[in-house]
Amino acid sequence: MLSVVPRPSDDPGSYAGTATRAKMSSPSPHDRSSRPSPNADQEEEDPVDKMISRTGCGELHYAVQECMAEHQDWRRCQGPVQTFKDCMVNFQKARKEQLMKQRQANDASTQSA
Question: Could you name the domain of life of the organism this protein comes from (predicted)?
Fold first, then answer.
């Protein structure tokens, strides 16, 4: 069931009470407000969590999720979001360099054969 509730404004100059947001009555499937225990027996791990854990940025991702659960306002979580983004960008750069080196090594080995 979808209901509309007034959203309080953090900005005193805005039209407080006029903005609305949709509120779902069922929990979000992507709610990561509580960190899964490392020893918990989970039947199926979330593919997003699995992918992020391989980057080495998992703890930062959880920090963003905890901030969002606490504040319910993405604007108040810009610090953790930026830190997580920086981590992901660094991972992507390193991964790209690794793939380029592998490609060069493969190209060199096929040319010499």
Answer: Eukaryota
- In 3D space, the residue among 60, 52, 68 whose CA is nearest the CA of residue 86 turns out to be 60
Q: Please, what is the Cα angle at 90 between 87 and 95, to 5 degrees? A: 125
Q: What is d(CA 15, CA 66) in angstroms, rounded to the nearest whole number?
A: 28
Output the CA angle 29-31-76, nearest 5 degrees.
Answer: 140
CB atoms under 10 Å from CB of 81, counted, come to 16
Query: Would you say the C-alpha torsion 50, 56, 59, 60 has a positive or negative sign?
Result: negative
pLDDT string in tens for the chain (113-residue length): 444 444 444 444 443 443 444 444 445 555 555 555 555 555 688 999 999 999 999 999 999 999 999 999 999 999 999 999 999 999 999 999 999 999 999 988 888 76
